[in-house]
Amino acid sequence: xxxxxxxxxxxxxxxxxxxxxxxxxxxxxxxxxxxxxxxxxxxxxxxxxxxxxxxxxxxxxxxxxxxxxxxxxxxxxxxxxxxxxxxxxxxxxxxxxxxxxxxxxxxxxxxxxxxxxxxxxxxxxxxxxxxxxxxxxxxxxxxxxxxxxxxxxxxxxxxxxxxxxxxxxxxxxxxxxxxxxxxxxxxxxxxxxxxxxxxxxxxxxxxxxxxxxxxxxxxxxxxxxxxxxxxxxxxxxxxxxxxxxxxxxxxxxxxxxxxxxxxxxxxxxxxxxxxxxxxxxxxxxxxxxxxxxxxxxxxxxxxxxxxxxxxxxxxxxxxxxxxxxxxxxxxxxxxxxxxxxxxxxxxxxxx
Length: 351
Prior knowledge:
Elements: E1 8-21, E2 33-52, E3 60-64, E4 69-72, H1 84-93, E5 99-107, H2 117-130, H3 139-153, H4 161-168, E6 171-178, E7 181-186, H5 191-200, E8 201-205, H6 214-226, H7 231-237, H8 240-249, H9 252-269, H10 276-287, E9 292-295, E10 304-308, H11 313-326, E11 331-333, E12 336-337, E13 343-348
Parallel strand pairs: 3-5
Antiparallel strand pairs: 1-2, 1-13, 2-5, 2-6, 2-12, 3-4, 6-7, 8-10, 8-11, 9-10
Helix pairs in contact: 1-2, 1-3, 2-3, 2-4, 3-4, 8-9
């Protein structure tokens, strides 16, 4: 960067997603679905330093802080450079050409944790870039644009639930009535239920990035061929309603049963969707009287597991200690329920 001071600094944050009961049914091959999920911190963070055009030697500079990379975005040649997700989001938003900017992206959530981190990053980036263009996108519109980056520009397999959770935050019941068109009902509960849920939830990172492997490709092919009303997808859809109802009633045992039912349904899609590492964490959670567990995202090698612990905090802490002692790669990620989804704001750069 030069010694020039930006004339605007735009900030945006968006939560990640855990406990996606009904996952896999928010996809194009499912056609319709029901998903329960929970937005949590740590969030993805974006900061844009804005300069008048022509002041910087490069119009757009990307600082991917987690990777220790800073580079100029050059679009003279076809294709993407080092971070296609970020580059595609910037291209989609069509930022005015009379501006130059540096965009810094950071997340405390590990990459590839199967917690929708890429969706949170894209939602935060689009929300920040939206402040540089006329008008304002709604949370729903931000979510759809974020999904379009992955599906339309990058050609990836991607549902819609992660983006909606990051855009809205909180505890969500998503009804995808025709892919990707969805309604989002936020589950409003008393502070006692909210705080108790937050106290009971544990997020365990398996220590290695989730990988979209041949197993996932095989499962997708199987579900694509089976049709939207196949038993496997219906079994997953059926976990969202009980999850929502359990939270409204403050019934954590019922929520735990729904989480376990979803994880078992994932295993029936393909046994390798519940990895040996995830199975070991589940075994330790069961020994410590946890009420439920959910292999986050699609499942498979790497990623993370959400655990719903029992009544006693001391038992929860003992469970976390045993999990982390069992495998040096296993890591408990502190989480807090996000009352808000995407947030953007700015201040004068001189203040």
